[in-house]
Amino acid sequence: MKIAIDAMGGDFAPQAVVEGTMKAADRYPHVEFILFGPEEQIKPLLTQPKENIRVHHAPRAIKVDDSPVMAVRRQKDSSLVMAAQAVKDGEADALLSAGNTGAVLTAGLLIIGRMKGIDRPGLMATLPSFADNHAYTILADAGANVDCKVRNLVEFAHLASLYQEKVFGLKNVQVGLLNNGTEEGKGNALTKEAYQVLKADKQINFAGNIEARETLTTPCPVLVGDGFICNAVLKTVEGTAMTLMAAIKEAIQSGPLSAKVGGLLIKKPLKKLLKQVNYDQVGGAVLLGIKSALVKAHGSSSAVAIASALDQTVNIVSSGLIPAISQQLEKEVAETLEQETKEG
Amino acid sequence: MKIAIDAMGGDFAPQAVVEGTMKAADRYPHVEFILFGPEEQIKPLLTQPKENIRVHHAPRAIKVDDSPVMAVRRQKDSSLVMAAQAVKDGEADALLSAGNTGAVLTAGLLIIGRMKGIDRPGLMATLPSFADNHAYTILADAGANVDCKVRNLVEFAHLASLYQEKVFGLKNVQVGLLNNGTEEGKGNALTKEAYQVLKADKQINFAGNIEARETLTTPCPVLVGDGFICNAVLKTVEGTAMTLMAAIKEAIQSGPLSAKVGGLLIKKPLKKLLKQVNYDQVGGAVLLGIKSALVKAHGSSSAVAIASALDQTVNIVSSGLIPAISQQLEKEVAETLEQETKEG
Questions:
Q1: What are phi and psi of B198, to 5 degrees?
Q2: Chain A neighbours among B 111-170 (CB < 8 Å)?
Q3: CA B153 to CA A252: how far, in whole Å?
Q4: Which of A146, A193, A220, A300 to mutate against chain B (most B CBs within 10 Å)?
Q5: Which residues in chain B are closer than 8 Å to A268, comparing Cβ atoms?
Q6: Chain A: nearest CA to B154, how far in angstroms?
Q7: Helix A267-277 vs helix A257-265: angle between axes, to the nearest 10 degrees?
Q8: pLDDT band at B42 (very low <50, low <70, confident <90, very high)
Q9: Looking at the complex, does the CB of residue B184 fall below 8 Å from at least one CB of chain A?
Q10: pLDDT digit string (tens) for B155-185?
Q11: Cα gap A225→B226, rounded to integer Å
């Protein structure tokens, strides 16, 4: 297995990316990690040279505020575009980048390319769950597609279900539709129609509407919605957790001595909890529906976060998720043809 | 001032509604409270008869699962419809209900009626803020309009700004647009266009895009978005806060003795905080853009919650918010006419 890494993507690149890669290289001696970036910058950072890390020279870096489509089209010698091209050309099995989100998604779509049969690839965010039956809830689409058609939500449901099955080993994955009420008939124009199509789809184990209030606790391992709503939900979870934790700290510090002592005593469980709701810590978001695996790590990724996003990338490739998606798509096409032949 | 109260609305009606009304009647001796509901049920609950509480017989109650439009159209002798009719007829200045949300909003629209010049009245939710410059952030629309046009968001911005000015005494109220990124040009089809119209509107102090992550901490006292997105954000704040608090409790209880002791010591500040983020506790949501004040209290309102929603109702009526909205609308119509005359 070979993983192409955009060494220049992210707020702490290339330092954090190179360090994270060295950690991952120790964990996975049989995986080859290819760092794309300016040799003169990357090589000095490789303080512990490894046999399974290679540097591939790419002189430029796409910036965070570059226009995504323009950057991907024009900066052919950038670390991101060259890494994506290596995946496209079969020189690597997966792409990891912590860079400009729009540019990373665009590189996935334009260079690696959509799978046949998929209208819009979906970005899968992995949110730690407080439910007993699964560890992570996947929100799809997490922001790649802000305006969606019903077909897109149905595709996200398929892709995310397979992700839970193949990578996390779940069976009969229940899919919830993020909506503004639990009853059938609730929703906006999109979710009302999507409800009916999801319900009728025999390949999906549809659990009905789920309100955003249940995001952290729902027994459904998959929640689907358009990229605008899922993005808002993810960011609200993050913002609320951060604000609450800061407020608890403040309440403890400005309280009487007893509160300060109490605070010290519960510091450890609180820290653990905060880490759990910080979805950025759980590797990265995965773009599914393109021809290879693409993991987008958070822009502010530390070396540890890069290493954990690489864990995730290795897991996805070795799980066989991408071929499984493509097989299912072929099966569906074949079934549709068969159906049409029968009907015709 | 007279307030019409749907005594049969809410999970704990009529008991909690009657009790809450008795509390409010003590606080506001010059306000008349009219309880609409079956006399034989309401009167025995009025254990402390007050001069400023009157019961108006209404034999029926709309149920939580009744279809809103059907219920309001057909159940003319229900407590909600009769209370709304009293407001329409000028027998009361405001309506309070904790009943079926859809039915309450429908009664506001169909019976009390839209103000001239308003396309879609907006539901204003009041969320406690952690910012220094204001106590409550208003989210509009909080769920009455799940599919919106740009015009609707602009109207919500106007209505919510006036609400902050008149009821909470703020000046130069900054309005943020809930969006999936802060930069101009971010968003879905609706928010991209709304950004430009809000920016060009000289009556609105537009602060640009605000990400959902900032909901609790933004310095903007008003956040606008369609009813689907604001509803999701509100429910995610609530769900995340509840889940985190439960998890903290669990971590403390299952931890070592030191954690248990720590937990006891910080119990009080934690409880205070939880109350602060529970938006249901802050009175109710207000439907603005109809001809009179309408407050929708949460379905699970206790007597205390009903009393605090009545505080809010009294505040709104005595602030002169409703006439101020109608004056502003008349002024806008006059200005548009003048402009057209000049151009013509």
A1: -65, -40
A2: 130, 143, 146-147
A3: 40
A4: A146
A5: 259
A6: 19
A7: 60
A8: very high
A9: no
A10: 999 999 999 999 999 999 999 999 999 999 9
A11: 15
* Count of alpha carbons within 13 angstroms of residue A268, beta-carbon side: 9
Rounded to whole angstroms, what are the CA distances from B130 to A116, A248, B136, B231? 48, 12, 9, 19
Each residue's pLDDT tens digit, B227-246: 999 999 999 998 998 888 88
Mean pLDDT of all residues in chain A?
92
Q: Report CB contact under 8 Å: A235, B251.
A: no
Helix, coil or strand: residue A325: helix
The ipTM value here is: 0.90
3-state SS class at B219: coil
Tell me the two tokens of residue B281.
């506790």
Q: Give the C-alpha separation, B174 to B206, whole Å.
A: 6
Angle between helices A303-319 and A150-168 (to 10 degrees): 90
Alpha-carbon Rg for chain B in angstroms: 21
Cis peptide bond upstream of B26, omega within 30: no
Residues 262-301 (A) with a CB less than 8 A from some CB of B: 262-266, 268-270, 272-273, 276-277
Report in angstroms the alpha-carbon separations of A240 from A244, A245, A271, A281, B233.
6, 8, 15, 16, 10
Q: Which residues of B touch A228 (CB under 8 A)?
A: 180, 187-188, 191, 229
Q: How far apart are CA A95 and CA A99, in angstroms?
A: 12
Q: Exposure string (b/e) for A307-316, b if CB count within 10 Å is 16 or more?
A: bbbbbbbbbb
Contact across the interface for A217 and B243, Cβ inside 8 Å: yes
Distance from CA of B126 to the nearest CA of A (A): 16
Residue-wise pLDDT tens digits, A237-275:
989 988 888 888 888 888 778 778 778 777 777 777 777
Q: Which residues, in sequence order, are bridge partners of residue A209?
A: A177
> Closest Cα to residue B73, out of B102, B100, B106, B95?
B106
Q: What is the C-alpha radius of gyration for chain A, rounded to an integer number of angstroms?
A: 21
Q: Is the CB of residue B303 less than 8 Å from the CB of residue B274?
A: no
Verify cis geometry, omega within 30 degrees of 0, for the bond prior to B77: no
- Residue A281: pLDDT band with limits 50, 70, 90: low
Q: Enter the pTM of the model.
A: 0.91
C-alpha–C-alpha distance, residues B303 and B17, integer Å: 6
Encoded tokens for A315: 């897991």
| Distance, CA of B280 to CA of B242 (rounded, Å) | 12
Q: What pLDDT band is residue A331 in, cutting at 50, 70 and 90?
A: confident
CB pair distance less than 8 Å for B229 and A232: yes
Report residue A183 as tokens. Answer: 């009853």
Q: What does B123-159 look like in DSSP terms, one character per residue? A: EEEEEE--SSS-SEEEEE-SSS-SS--HHHHHHHHHH
